[in-house]
Design a protein that fits this description.
This protein has about 300 residues and is an alpha/beta fold. It has one domain: Nitrilase/N-carbamoyl-D-aminoacid amidohydrolase (4-Layer Sandwich), CATH 3.60.110. The protein is about 25% helix and about 30% strand. It has 7 helices and 18 strands. The strands form 4 sheets. Strands 1, 2, 3, 4, 5, 6, 7 and 18 form an 8-stranded mixed sheet that branches. A 6-stranded mixed sheet has the order 8-9-10-13-16-17.
């Protein structure tokens, strides 16, 4: 299903596509097919930049470590360069200029670990170069068994429409990385790849309060706050639907938040959707928020 909206009628502005999809664990070929189907539709709709969720090719980890490691080794991006080159050849052009993927590459200094990287396919090539990737910094407990931290790595993509900084999933919870991108790198927008799950319980018995989808609550809280507090755009692609092997669900809710924190477009929390917002006036809207006299008067 496609959810499509128009920010303006100015065709010179950027059009962005976000895949609110469910990458299946142990089904890399199926995930490839889903990505191809999405790219075909985004191309037809003349999108300029496409964002896929975290682990879009491999799917997420699961408890059986021996089986998981064996599969993830085969799903490493190191083995998929021919496929990625073909994606560039087939889809990258003067209209669709950037495709943002996320996945695993081997840590050459620790044979037992990987890096989680986000990277951009475009006409320049060399997409695995150190200055062309972002290595995830903050790792949930379970991922630490498999992944090495990028240790405050950064990636900034400069385009004709503005500057994009990159964060991955749990990174958005930690302001230091965000402040570096916004205050030092001067980005206009944050691209977020995520596999953020719904479940997580918090209970306050004395108040008769129980939240069974705590992590979904956080996603819906942090996404607009990330945009408003930093007065930048947020373009977030999150996985949606059930983990194919474990009893958890990813919360979806991929979307686009303006620098005011107001949501422009948001995906389902239960089903796959492709989101498109056309003709976004990125830099102008950043300037509007940063020049707001009332907000400046607070500081």
């Amino acid at each position: 299903m496609i959810v499509e909206k128009f920010f303006s009628e100015n065709l010179e502005n950027i059009s962005i596509g976000i895949a609110n999809i469910n990458p299946k664990t142990k089904d890399m070929e199926g995930n490839k097919n889903s990505i191809i189907e999405a790219l075909n539709l985004f191309s037809e709709k003349k999108v300029n930049l496409v964002i896929f969720p975290e682990y879009c090719l491999s799917g997420y980890f699961w408890e059986n470590e021996k089986e998981c490691r064996s599969y993830m080794e085969k799903a490493c991006l190191d083995h998929l360069t021919d496929w990625l080159d073909e994606i560039v050849r087939l889809y990258i052009n003067k209209t669709l200029q950037y495709i943002v993927f996320n996945g695993l590459i081997k840590n050459k200094e620790d044979s037992n670990k990987y890096f989680n990287i986000s990277f951009v396919l475009d006409q320049t090539g060399n997409y695995f170069d150190q200055d062309r990737t972002y290595k995830k910094t903050y790792l949930p407990r379970f991922e630490k068994e498999y992944i090495s931290s990028g240790i405050n790595d950064t990636l900034v993509l400069e385009t004709a429409w503005g500057k994009f900084g990159f964060l991955t999933c749990w990174d958005i919870y930690f302001p230091r990385l965000v402040q570096k991108l916004v205050n030092i790198k001067k980005v206009d927008a944050l691209i977020v790849n995520a596999a953020w799950r719904k479940q997580g319980e918090r209970e306050y018995k004395g108040l008769n309060i129980k939240e069974e989808s705590y992590y979904k609550f956080l996603w819906n809280l942090i996404s607009p706050a990330l945009a408003f507090q930093n007065q930048v755009w947020v373009f977030a692609a999150n996985a949606v639907g059930p983990h194919s092997l474990e009893g958890v669900d990813f919360c979806g809710g991929s979307g686009i938040w303006s620098p005011s924190g107001i949501n422009m477009l948001k995906g389902s929390d239960i089903k796959e959707e492709l989101l498109i917002l056309h003709n976004i006036d990125m830099i102008h809207e950043v300037e509007v928020e940063r020049n707001d006299d009332e907000l400046k008067g607070i500081i």
